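Re: [help] complex structure
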Amino acid sequence: MKRKSFILVLYFGCFLTLTGCWSQKELTDLAIISAMGIDLTENGEYASTLQIINPSNVAGGLQGGGAGQGPPVSIYTATGSSIIEMNQRASKKLPRRRYYAHTNVLVIGEELARKEGITGILDAIERHQEFRMTAVIIIAHGVKASDLLKVLTPVDKIPANKIIKNLRFTEEQWGEVFTLNLQDVKKDMTAVGKSPVISGFSIEGDPVQGSKMENVQTSDPETTLSATGLAIFKEGKLVDWIDGKTARGTVLILDKIKNTGISFDWKDKKDVGTFQVIRMNSKNIATMKKGKPKITVEVKAEGYLSEIRTAVNLTDPKILIEMEDTIEKTIKEEILLAVEEGKKVKSDIFGFGQVFHQNHPKEWQKLKAEWHDVHFPELTVDVNVEVYIRRTGLRNNPSVLKQ
Amino acid sequence: MPSFFKRRQITKQKMKQKKEEQTKQKIGDYGTTPLPSSLKEKIDFIKSETGNSFDVIIRKADLDEKLGIETAVVYIDGISNTQIINDFLIHSIIKNRELHRKQPNKDIFEIVREEVVALGDVKVLPNWKEVFQMLMAGETVVLIDGETRALGASTRGGEQRSIEEPGSQVTVRGPRDGFTESIGTNIALIRRRIQNPNLWVEVMKVGRVTKTDVSIMYINGIAKEEIVAEVRERLNRIEIDSILESGYIEELIEDESYTTFPTLYYTERPDMVAGNLLEGRVAILVNGTPFVLIAPTVFIQFFQSVEDYYGRAFLATSLRFLRVLIFFISIIAPASYIAGTTFHQEMIPTQLLIAIAAQRETVPFPAFIEALIMEVSFEILREAGVRMPRAVGSAISIVGALVIGQAAVQAGIVSPAMVIIVAITAIANFATPSFAVAISARIIRFLFMIAAATFGFYGIILGLVVLAIHLTSLRSFGVPYVTPLAPMIPKDLGDTVFRLPLWSLKTRPALISSEQSQTRVGGDQHPKPDSSKKMVPKKQKGEQE
Amino acid sequence: MEKAKIGAYQFFVLLLLFELGSAVLVPIAIGANRDAWIAILISTVGGVLLFFVYYRLYKFYPQLTPTEYMEKLLGKFFGKILAFAYILFFVYISARVLRDFGEMLLSFAYVDTPLFIVNTLFILVIIYALQKGIEVIARTGELFFNLLYLLAVIGFILIISSGLIDLNQLKPYLEQGWTTVFNVVVTETLYVPFGEAFVLSVILPYIKDTKKIKYAGIAGIVLSGINLSLVMAINISVLGIDLATRSQFPLLTTVQSIQIAEFLERLDVFFMVSMVIGIFFKASIYFYAAVSGTTILFKFKEPSKLVYPIGLVILFMSITIANSYSEHLKEGLDLTTRFLHPFFLVLAPVFLLAIAYVKNRKRKKK
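Output below.
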């Protein structure tokens, strides 16, 4: 019995180990895709752009030694009528197996986002077991996704990494754009009372020049990628772009800002002071008043004065309190600007509807059907801002005061 | 119903038959054959039995020339103490010639036993079996003409290795003595540590040809009687020609042969043995080897070192965690590398993946083969290092470092990442405190590599499940191998991967020591002198000055 | 019966692992939408009540396995038929669990690998464990219980510290009212996983300290209920209700969304480890129940020989019961939870208990 079972185990063992290796994929057989772009072609087909990493050109290893000589990424393109099909078509050109698990950036062409929307595209990606829902999604602002992905970037050799870091640090330090991954987009799109806003990227300079190695070999790259504005979606389609203060106001309501500098006017002098935010949070409170929905946006900001270019006595607490009021007003304006913009395109990008759903489920049943088109544009939005200036940096009074 | 799922049942009849067959052809078994009375016959018999061996010394001496009473002192050169034999036997016999004439009533044999042989331990040997046993153990046999008995005097000795620091289990803090090849010395080393009459030693001869002394040592009252009886029974059951090292015994009495894990602990350190005896374990000492076996053994013992008990509890605990980690690294590090780079590239952070991918660009082999090449060449190197004379050792390490380290990487045959993995695995393996478990990890590692190469992490996880099932199914002298983790014994957990302060380890291991007395720390021993707990109180007025 | 001894703690661990088993991986009680966690908590209470039914049954025959007391309660003929039906049920569910496992592994990691291979490998491990007996399974359970909870705690900390949890996603509570919640409880979660505790009746006679069984059982069920509820609540609050409902394996999606310091991400292996451990115990215990029932019913002398044929049956059944994963799930909802579970896990035990009461009263009167 013992021998028999041993033979059985041996048999199974051989059978498994010898015929195994189905899902095995050697590292050297993989084309690691760092970013994928999807565009709409003129005849209505999809065009995909795959940004593939050339590992030996990125990491200067012992054997490779060629770091910096060749381009860190290569671009392959293909067209087709479905996402998966065209990507598989791309393998005709690729010497390796496409590998999506490290695709950290998904770029959607503006035209595609406007004409067809992103709902359909995301399905294939969501279903795919390699593709990650933590990949960052951006919209190519005014350019094609394929052009965006071709631009080589200095410092961060892999353009996809540059895009991610760019977004992250802009979000942390400025706040006009923010990182949004596929999962968040999907969550926003399926929630009834919320529409997604997605950060946009654009090319500064000549796209063709940007795809050449010379672009990263100078100290002043001719072509660069930069985060520009937010794309507002409605029912899955891009309807408008916002940037500047409007964009920051939006990000503020969405409670995604960590640090930012807010310039404010002081005694008729425009933008002479800068309030550096170190902590900021916002909260949307939904209330029903006589059957009419109302939203109160409550913002609390804490920070210090980082710049002041006018004569003012900062050692006086009363003046600081006055200043706080001014900053509060500035922030409120920004927020209202954003709300107006949202109302204009009839898309609740702030998730006010969601707040109603969560806190007033019964009333929401009535509002639900026509939220974006009727109720949201008519919504009363109150903004309460509280600003605290905690300190004034390493100096007390500006030198302007003495003169 | 018969026992469920257990098929290990050899029929008792078969055992009996085997035993009978074996007893028929025992070598060197004289049974109770009595001695002839003539001295010449006796000497001839010894000579013929020992094949006139060069080292069997027979010194004849007259006890009474007139009466023709002759004696012979027989001993084996080299294993007996010649000085003692000369001074207290031969010299004494010659000096006490004709002593019996003064005491005519007394038997000559008795006179020789009581007055001539001036040694402490003198035995009367009634038959050849005992004569040879004594002789071969280094004792001296005194043969007297006309007597059918012989005298055995204890003269063991000869050249022995002195007590040195143990080579295999070195500690920074702790005693420096280690066992030697002599069982007597070893027993003494332990007895010196446990000065208690309840430290009992049982001796038996094992090995039909070698007649090796094997002794069981335990503390009566602390050791569990069932376990002592079990050890005794298993030792008695041994029927083999030779016992040359305790490894022989280990293989013949262990619970499960088909496992890479040792179910008996062995050590060179007397303090370790003493500590284990005090936990209720049984030590098995074998003559001719400094390695003493300890039974029953649990898995967690292999992650503990004696030093843990000598140093601070915090350090011991963190070291034990480190050792468990080390064990896991040494079995699954290469396997994880293979699984990560051939199945689950999604798990590796992008930057790291790119770095590894860049290194692997030029490597012509799949990751599994690469790992296998490196692991096998490392094993070769290690084997060479162990077996080679010390002088050659440094040459080997230079060649090894150059070949598997640098040259292989520069030639593009292996990737630097693989070299790092192999190096970590190797160092982890060396850092395992128990050599026995380190070896078993070495073997298992390859199985895990195969599992990883065929099924990635799924293979590794299944491997770990099988490993866990295997470990929990093992027993050592009836004690489950993974206690006190599974089955969980909460009060024993203080001395597992943790080592709590000594005063909190109030009881001995539950399944191992005798149920009657399990307390080892009396009362509350937590040291908390007032003066160091709070601020020192003011001195009373009267005490000043 | 095997000559084994199991401690109350080991029983608790086995029960917990068994209950968590596959339930923690698949979306349970998702019919109740955002209130899935409430539904699970309520069914925990039901689970405790059901456990009392099983426990009373055991109390009547503390030395006997269900197969044996069924014969005593229903008479030779009917008892044997019911016991046989139970064996089939155990084999079937074991195969279902194995299929679940294979499908999970295939859909997220081993896409190209045939189901047969994955399942074969797994059943071999289970067979190996069963060969060693229930004692070894229980001890292995103790080891993996620690590992599982370690992973759970690490995972929990990671999820919290990556700031993924948005408790607002759980709101509004009880949007569809209590009826939906109770509907889900009665048709689904009461049986899976809580009612399944009946299977563990097979090992109850092995337990040493009989007094502690009650507490171990209750603790096991309550703790597993809390855990499941917590996991479901985390899933929904991380993924939002839409993603949680559409995910085949919400826990996997949750784990995949962890992203900390650009290093701690893509922790699929966490999921895989907990999956293998959970399913291993679930399938093993069902399998063991089937083997033990068969041994007693057909009076086999060497039960270890039964492990291979039954293992083969489970393996082939797991592959042939459905053509696709969707079909497999549909079958599970339409056949298993609607008919098989209520009958085998609730009706039959309650019925047996009733008979036991009547019989015992008669005996007392005599």
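Chain B has three domains: 39-153, 183-297, 311-476.
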